[in-house]
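Regression report. Comparing outputs from two consecutive submissions.

Submission 1:
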Amino acid sequence: MSNSNRGEEDVLSDEEAAILAAALRPEMPDPDRAARLKARVMEGIRKESAPKPAEPLATPAAAFRTIAAEGREWRSVSPGVEMCTLREDDEARSILLRMQPDSILLPHQHAMSEESLILEGDAWIGDEVYLQAGDYHFSPAGAKHPLLRSPGGCIVFVRCDREFRPRVSVGLVKRVIGGIVKRLSA
């Protein structure tokens, strides 16, 4: 959950988080409760039956996805630039980017880390990086991507990963400590 009122000053540094973690005293669970939990976990493990190594695991046909070239759905993202989403879920996205000759993609911020492979044609990233078929490019999450232009047109395969980076903030620490104090005083 995001809180737009939080500022950068509200985030603990790694050193501050380490000091806070070192100051916490481990609390052992009630022995009876721990024994019951362990018994439930062990029972669940016993109930699981691992497939025999000689038996191949069957993958349901629904797990596979094939998109024929003529069946792709392209949408315009700017004049002369189209995108086709091949796959997208909570963790990643795969797309094709198709640029007509002399088209441009304006500078943009990367919300996810991005790997790109030029399949056909050529492209310039800013005025310094020239890519052609077979070339690979990586942009980290949070990076600002300069203008992308394609003199001869191109098709690019792009794979994006959403990276989970939990942030320890002063507000979070206050809520955790408040919860601990509340339990201790109950």
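Submission 2:
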Amino acid sequence: MKRSSSLGFGLIFIVVGFLLLLNRFDLLYITWSKIYPVLLVIAGLAFFYSAFRGKSENAFWGTFFLLLGSYFLLQNFHIIHRFQFYEFWPVFIVALGVSFIVLFLFKPSDWALLIPGSILTFFGVIVLFHTLDFSYMVVRFAQKFWPLVLVIIGVGLITSSLIKKK
């Protein structure tokens, strides 16, 4: 095991242990519903890190876990209200579709990835808009997260510059 990976795992154990200790003394309230979205986001970031280091197929799982983790984090912060499973299942379909599209960005020669990506994303978005009150979501999202557009543009610029360097 490399020294840097040991350092990373050591830091993770220290942070998790410290958070659980705070929870034991009732200084911090931690439940599984608060932890699993963070774990999904961390897994997504780890897969993206691996994708940028040469294993481009990990971009699919990085996107999928990052999108789902972000969605559940937004629910935890009450930005998106909690839905029953039959109301938010299209989020899984959209996450799968976008994951195929991001994988295509890492493997531009594989045009076949755009077919399932486009179909799943389109189908998921249509069903999601039909299931949820679209106007409520757009207004709430625009009020709180308009700077996210800048972040997405920045990520796109960085991704395109890294892919062109290869």
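Expected: both submissions complete independently.
Actual: both completed, but the second showed a warning that disappeared on reload.
Relevant detail on submission 2: Residues 1-30 form one domain.
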